[in-house]
Task: structure prediction
Amino acid sequence: MPQPSSSAISRTANATAVVGLQWGDEGKGKLVDLLAADHDATVRYNGGANAGHTVVVRGQKYAMHLVPSGILYPGKLAVIGNGVVVDPESLIGEIDGLAARGVDASGLVISSRAHAVMPYHKQEDEFRESLLKDGAAAGSELGTTKRGIGPAYADKAQRSGAVRMGDLVRPAVLREKLDIACRFKGTLLASSPGAKEGRDPGAIAERMLAAGKRLGPSIRDTTYLLHDLIREGKRVLFEGGNATLLDVDHGTYPYVTSSACTALGIAQGTGVPAKAIGRIIGVMKAYTTRVGRGPMPTELLDAIGNGIRERGREYGTTTGRPRRVGWLDLVAVRYSAMINGATGLCVNMMDVLAGIDEIKLCTAYRVDGATTDRFIPDGYDLARAEPVYRSVPGYSTDVRAVRHRRDLPHAARAYLDLIEEFVGVPIDIVSVGPDRAETILD
Ligand code: IMP
Result:
């Protein structure tokens, strides 16, 4: 069998990426679900159970955290790549939840090199947040999802004692790693209120070997698998978790997550070179939301913001927290489209803005008396930015039944034109409601 070489892969329309251009929750799940119908495999490459991708099919709502959203199509592959951090027990819970609703998860494949989130990672996440909230540096917590994401990625970088999914079916290696890890965690978490079993190597090994028994048949090398698929001309869809402004390098650090969330993370998080990806769709809402702490220049703390939150059901898929809501920040979106190399945009939640008389869009920032139209990818500096708005007329007609862009109310079309012009990337898809069918493709 010929071995794949780097020259075996060239840019192909067969590989598509879906990435979030804001602070997450842009509606990537719905788009991935829509596109998955035409793809042979859906692939997650970053993040973990902190992500929450919601898909609504014929009125039935599915909330996916670790399982790629494409799982809802029987017979297709759903791949969890090496860049993801997997909580084995929550993954099993998710698979069981899907099975109870008749969804067959047998197409799920998990990279043996994806790192595993252990009980002590969740304790550490919780403990660090509580110290930051109430301790000496009170009020400096990040507002994480407490899913152990940061500690798991930190241990991956630390190396010693870090558990990978392949270790769940290697009892001796698993135990050796847990012995090392628990020695460190025992010290670190000595005064944490978390249950001691969560840092006991024997107790954890037992739980993880049980998880390994369940997940073992799905754990394998995914890099060759993906290269083989691409060489065979199969269509592969990469599903970004979290979003660009939460990226550990390109987001509003330190108010970010711990992974590479942009399209740039696909290569590292799967082993598939960047040049393989022909289409990169940047997903955005018609307004802005954010969960957790950190600067958000266009945040609305008034009745308009509350109205958008209620109409848009803006409550976290993962934590249930109310999301912060604000006007569309075009400066941020244009920056994110640039970082990702977006070839097209998907604008979601157009229905939620319907009924507002006057809509505002942020087209620049005022910082220290100067105006800039460049994003400020630093949590501290961005906190000083004041939005400069452009106002446009709102649209009052309910748009949920509209299926063609030309049939949208004039003001809604003008709003989309303005986004396209400012960002410099065409809008390929517009969403006017949560259901698969409530989508405009032309
Ligand atoms: P962590 O990823 O749990 O460490 O959380 C870090 C920050 O990223 C927090 O502000 C979270 O609310 C935010 N975050 C992480 N994942 C998502 C997501 O998928 N959508 C929205 N916010 C997220």
Remarks:
- Residues 23-25, 50-52, 142-145, 147, 149-150, 242, 246, 257-258, 291-292 surround inosinic acid (CB under 6 Å).
- Confidence is low (pLDDT under 50) at residues 1-9.
- The CA atoms of residues 46 and 84 lie 4 Å apart.
